[in-house]
Write a structure and sequence with these properties.
By secondary structure, the protein is an alpha+beta fold. The chain contains two helices and four strands, in the order αββββα.
Length: 75
């Protein structure tokens, strides 16, 4: 699912408030935002549910940070 313009604006506003600095692995400052994903819970009481996340990927080493969509203000 690609982000629509309204969702993209929310991501940009979040990034201005909580900017992702240099990658902790390679120190690059080039980040790419990928399409949202739902990570399945496989343990505990939430089995079968998904954690909606937005991946931020380092353009140099590929380190991927997942930010919860709810924290960004996306459904």
């Amino acid at each position: 699912m690609a982000l629509d313009p309204e969702q993209t604006a929310k991501v940009q506003a979040w990034l201005q408030q909580y900017s992702i600095k240099a990658c902790p692995v390679c120190k690059s400052k080039k980040w790419t935002v990928a399409d949202p994903v739902g990570l399945p819970f496989i343990l505990g009481s939430n089995i079968g549910k998904a954690l909606p996340s937005l991946p931020f990927i380092c353009g140099r080493c590929g380190l991927t940070l997942l930010i919860n969509l709810n924290n960004i203000g996306l459904p």
